[in-house]
């Protein structure tokens, strides 16, 4: 009963969408029984047929998310970077009190800003003889693969423990809010290869240091680390020492 009424509501809410589909693909009660959320379900992001970023994701509601006005733009000459910076949402007190969480999911909703992000990295790293793009779980898996494909490198996932099925080497590391371990498949890279390490964000630098150590342990040269965001007050860049770090936006 609940399914049928929900179908009616959805079909009337989104007529341009549902009416353009063949009848076999229109929302049917049969599908909705599987997909039906519990009655308390409230989507984190509003259902939206418009492909542009919903206004509610750009302008935070009632003080529970904010754009950081002091977000500084690196390499300020490039107008794409300001748009990338403003597409990143900041959620105070997530996942713990005191953490200003930099939420890149809103950047992913902005097709121009997301593409510009990838393009800026590709422009920097193409023709640098990089054969490996190593992406750190989880958010390095979003930015790493398109960069790897565009520069003709392989993508190597640096994973949380017990996720990779083959033989692994591992490194423990500390985070802004906890500790963790990183693993890489043995044989994914060869000694003498040249790697770029990609993540969405550098805070204390512990994550990137663990990735660098894993790669260098097997004889790979880490050419540079690259992130979308840097939190400079956590001094991750210092922790990386001599290893070059390229970022697009900084909270300083
Ligand atoms: O510079 P650091 O202090 O090491 O912190 C940066 C790391 O923290 C976040 O990942 P997180 O560990 O929260 O994992 P997730 O992406 O799986 O949520 C972020 O995506 C970086 O990987
Ligand atoms: N403030 C932050 N926002 C998003 N990811 C993080 N990882 C570590 N600190 C973070």
TrEMBL record:
Record-linked InterPro entries: Ade_phspho_trans, Adenine_PRTase, PRTase-like, PRTase_dom
Gene Ontology MF, one: adenine phosphoribosyltransferase activity
GO biological process assignments: adenine salvage; purine ribonucleoside salvage
Keywords in alphabetical order: Cytoplasm, Glycosyltransferase, Purine salvage, Transferase
Pathway: Purine metabolism; AMP biosynthesis via salvage pathway; AMP from adenine: step 1/1
EC number, UniProt record: 2.4.2.7
Reactions catalysed, as given in the entry: AMP + diphosphate = 5-phospho-alpha-D-ribose 1-diphosphate + adenine
Compartments where found: Cytoplasm
Chief site of localization: cytoplasm
Magnesium listed as a keyword: no
Domain of life from the UniProt record: Eukaryota
A cellular component term, taken from the record's GO annotations: cytosol
Region (Disordered): 43-63
EC class name: transferase
Record domain Phosphoribosyltransferase: where: 112-238
One matching Pfam family: Pribosyltran
The keyword Electron transport appears for this protein: no
PANTHER family from the UniProt entry: ADENINE PHOSPHORIBOSYLTRANSFERASE, ADENINE PHOSPHORIBOSYLTRANSFERASE 1, CHLOROPLASTIC
NCBIfam families: apt, PRK02304.1-3, PRK02304.1-5
Protein family per UniProt: Belongs to the purine/pyrimidine phosphoribosyltransferase family.
Subunit structure: Homodimer.
Protein name: adenine phosphoribosyltransferase
Source organism: Acacia crassicarpa
Taxonomic classification: Eukaryota, Viridiplantae, Streptophyta, Embryophyta, Tracheophyta
């Amino acid at each position: 009963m609940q399914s049928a009424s929900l179908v009616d509501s959805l079909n009337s809410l989104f007529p341009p969408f549902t009416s353009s589909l063949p009848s076999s693909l229109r929302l049917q009660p049969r599908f909705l029984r599987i997909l039906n959320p519990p009655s308390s379900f409230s989507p984190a992001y509003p259902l939206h047929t418009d492909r542009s970023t919903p206004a509610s994701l750009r302008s935070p509601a009632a003080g529970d998310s904010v754009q950081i006005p002091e977000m500084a733009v690196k390499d300020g000459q490039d107008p794409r970077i300001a748009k990338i910076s403003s597409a990143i949402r900041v959620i105070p007190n997530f996942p713990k009190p005191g953490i200003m969480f930099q939420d890149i999911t809103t950047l992913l909703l902005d097709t121009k800003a997301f593409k510009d992000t990838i393009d800026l990295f590709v422009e920097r790293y193409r023709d640098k003889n990089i054969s490996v793009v190593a992406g750190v779980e989880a958010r390095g898996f979003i930015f790493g693969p398109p960069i790897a494909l565009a520069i003709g490198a392989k993508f190597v996932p640096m994973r949380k423990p017990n996720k990779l099925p083959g033989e692994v080497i591992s490194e423990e590391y500390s985070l802004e809010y906890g500790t963790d371990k990183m693993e890489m498949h043995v044989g994914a890279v060869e000694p003498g290869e040249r790697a770029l390490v990609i993540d969405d964000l550098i805070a204390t630098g512990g994550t990137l240091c663990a990735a660098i150590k894993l790669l260098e342990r097997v004889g790979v040269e880490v050419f540079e680390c690259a992130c979308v965001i840097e939190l400079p007050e956590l001094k991750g860049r210092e922790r990386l020492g001599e290893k070059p770090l390229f970022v697009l936006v900084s909270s300083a």
